[in-house]
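Researcher: Checking consistency across runs. Here is CRISPR-associated protein again:
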Amino acid sequence: MKTLLLAVTGMSPQVITETLWAIHHEQGAWPAEIQLITTSEGGKRAIDGLLTQGHLQRLCHEIGRPLPLFDASRIHVVTGAEDLPVDDARSREDHEALADFIMSKVAELANDDALQIHASLAGGRKTMTYYFGYAMSLFGRDQDCLTHVLISEGYENLEDFYYPSANQAPVTSRDGRKLETAAAEVVLADIPFVRLSDSLSPDMRDLARSISFRQLVILLNMAAHPNQIRVELNVGEQTLTVFKRGRPDALTHIKLASKPTFALMWVLVQAHMDGDHSLQRRNLDSQGNEVPDRGMALMLLEKLYPMCGQTIPAGCVQLEAQVETLQDYAELNDANFLRTLQTLSGGVTSNWLTPQISNIRKALRNALPDPLAALLSPALMTMTSDGQLEDASKKDLNPSYRFRLSPDQFVINDI
């Protein structure tokens, strides 16, 4: 497995050679490549110190290690609020951009299962290291590690000190003392971190590259505060939009796979808002046998008509007749939709309903952290004696589909 040394740096590119020295002496995995996340000034200093002055090549030659791949293309300069390179992150807007940039880069690199990331927190401003460490918690995997390099007193942040070289002339400390470089102690401190990546689907990792760090953190935190969630169903776009109550900006838009899947979500949300407990996984007769649910099929068709740009003909109330009037549209536009219509013509059964529920849950899990996706997913629930909804247990004979959010947390935007 290839090892990448990924570091945030500021004005001290020395942290790279110091970290490499420590990796060598502590017999860690030697990186095949180095990448930096830094400011434009930090990038210039890295090129000058590590490449132009040759400290990186000199270190590798002295300790007998192969030179990792490193050049200007592997230095990622943060862009600010106006999409220009950041010289030094001092404004609030620059720090927001810094967080987004770091999260996106870590998410991108952690998407490669053949890559081991050795993340170094030794350089950069305090907020850079915070965002970097948090990004590693979000996306770091079992094979990844997080470290900080510790340097003995007097040698920190000296422009002329890059590693404890036996061949380098003494350096001058900040208080004017002459220090032998070989006498410096460099220790690699392993930093344990909580890995949350298992709660993020591959699609969620991709989403992290297009939304802000702030938005992602809000999504992750919202599951612990479900009363803050607001969900809008946008019928024209067939999407679910997630908001935090009190904030006008959308956190994410979720596209459902097909018209029937969205129509089912619409039906279930409408029933939840209306306090309707009739939508069950199986419609059973008095003998406990499943009977196709024609009422649910009519509810679905009522939603499918406007989604297809159609209106229910006057006096067309029978299930079979409504299916027939939509068949011409389906034959011209969507073969899968046509098959769904043929299925619905006999009424909804669990053989159709269960996979559709799974499609909804999958779409939500792909776009949201798992705990939040569970709150937005339809669930089999029952009413308690005090009028509260709770998840159904195995002893409940035929619970209905409802949601774990309160009805007033949903909004339906019709066409």
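Researcher: Does this match what you'd expect to see?
Model: One thing to look at in this run: The chain has a mean pLDDT of 88.
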